[in-house]
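Title: Prediction job returns without error message
Component: structure pipeline
Severity: low
Priority: P3
Assignee: unassigned

Description:
Job completed but the reporter wants confirmation the result is attached to the right record. Sequence as submitted:
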Amino acid sequence: MPNPNINWAAIDADPKFQALHRKKTFFLWGLMIFSIIYYFMLPVGAAYFQDIFKIKVWGVVNVGILFALSEFVVAWVIAFVYSKKANAEFDAMTQEIINASVKKGA
């Protein structure tokens, strides 16, 4: 249950919260742009670079299939990178904001 005594407007105006929001937004936009570009490389490659995508790697497995499967790996890597950054930086910044708001409220 949320604490009704928390002054959300004060937290929103806090420069530390604004810095956290700015840092997190910038980081997430970077991840999103990378993931969108990587995602659209598959249909663009399949449409315009068919010779590369048809190269056999092993048996019936070709570069196109490997690239398509790499999309799953990239998604997991992006999730891992975000969780590492969140645990190392964003959570610490959030805890500072919480501690400061608890001190002000006490």
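Comment from assignee: result matches the submitted record. The two ends are 19 Å apart (CA to CA).
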